[in-house]
């Protein structure tokens, strides 16, 4: 398969998928090397950017997704008739930040760090598909461990959770480690 056909095939796959498709999966399906997939996606991105198209390709968690450009969101929203979503509350943003930087983490650990009940905030984040269950802690009651989703990465323009900006969590980490020790006892 030549490079142009690889690019066209990837474009079609990403359009039809509607969600991120892993680079390795694209390579396997197209029977090409991962490097060839990455080169084809690079070419597609270049074409979308230089031809002022309404679409773009974003990289999310080791894969790619075709999506509309943010500057056209208002028009798309008007056509689709979606109601504008309310912004997250401060409580939800605090809980989301803690989960993003400390994942996987339990609801109790989030509440300990915030110092207040976080049931509503966490439920709202799950409803918005910004966080999800990532397993269970091996402790009494087997509490749910939460982590961020691909939708979180998409909303915040991140390729993976490691792309979060650096913050000084040294004081927070000390308190968190003390909580973990108490929880294990």
Short description:
This protein has 185 residues and is α+β, with helices and mostly antiparallel strands. It has two domains: 3-79, Arc Repressor Mutant, subunit A (Orthogonal Bundle); 90-184, Arc Repressor Mutant, subunit A, CATH 1.10.10.10. 54% of the residues lie in helices and 15% in strands.
Protein architecture, described:
It is a single chain. With 185 residues, this protein is an alpha+beta fold. It has two domains: 3-79, Winged helix-like DNA-binding domain superfamily/Winged helix DNA-binding domain (Arc Repressor Mutant, subunit A, Orthogonal Bundle); 90-184, Arc Repressor Mutant, subunit A, CATH 1.10.10. It is 54% helix and 15% strand. It is built from nine helices and six strands; from the N terminus they run αβααββααβααββαα. The chain has helices at residues 3-17, 23-30, 34-50, 73-80, 90-102, 107-114, 119-127, 150-155, 170-184, and strands at 21-22, 55-60, 63-68, 105-106, 131-136, 144-148. It is globular. The protein starts with a helix and ends with a helix.
What is the class of the largest domain in the CATH system?
Mainly Alpha
Helix content: 40-55%
Overall shape: globular
H and E order? HEHHEEHHEHHEEHH
CATH topological fold name of the largest domain: Arc Repressor Mutant, subunit A
Domain tally: 2
Oligomer: single chain
Termini separation (Å)?
Answer: 59 Å
Low-confidence stretches: none
CATH-defined architecture of the largest domain: Orthogonal Bundle
**Given the structure, what is the number of helices?**
9
Q: Give the percentage of residues in beta strands.
A: 5-15%
Rounded to an integer in angstroms, the radius of gyration calculated over CA atoms is 20 Å
Biggest β-sheet description: 3 strands, antiparallel
CATH superfamily of the largest domain: Winged helix-like DNA-binding domain superfamily/Winged helix DNA-binding domain
Mean pLDDT: 86
Structural classification: alpha+beta
Count of individual beta strands = 6
Strand order within the widest sheet?
1-3-2
């Amino acid at each position: 398969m030549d490079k142009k056909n690889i690019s066209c095939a990837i474009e079609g796959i990403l359009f039809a998928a509607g969600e991120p498709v892993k680079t390795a999966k694209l390579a396997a399906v197209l029977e090409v090397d991962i490097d060839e997939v990455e080169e084809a996606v690079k070419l597609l991105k270049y074409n979308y950017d230089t031809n002022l198209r309404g679409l773009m390709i974003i990289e999310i968690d080791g894969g790619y997704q075709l999506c509309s450009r943010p500057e056209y969101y208002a028009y798309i929203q008007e056509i689709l008739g979606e109601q504008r979503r309310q912004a997250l509350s401060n409580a939800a943003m605090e809980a989301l930040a803690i989960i993003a930087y400390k994942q996987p983490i339990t609801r109790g650990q989030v509440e300990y760090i915030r110092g207040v009940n976080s049931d509503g905030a966490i439920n709202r984040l799950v409803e918005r598909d910004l966080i999800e269950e990532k397993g269970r802690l091996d402790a009494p009651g087997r509490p749910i461990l939460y982590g961020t989703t691909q939708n979180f990465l998409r909303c915040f323009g991140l390729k993976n959770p490691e792309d979060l900006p650096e913050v000084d969590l040294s004081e927070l980490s000390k308190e968190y480690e003390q909580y973990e020790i108490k929880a294990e006892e």
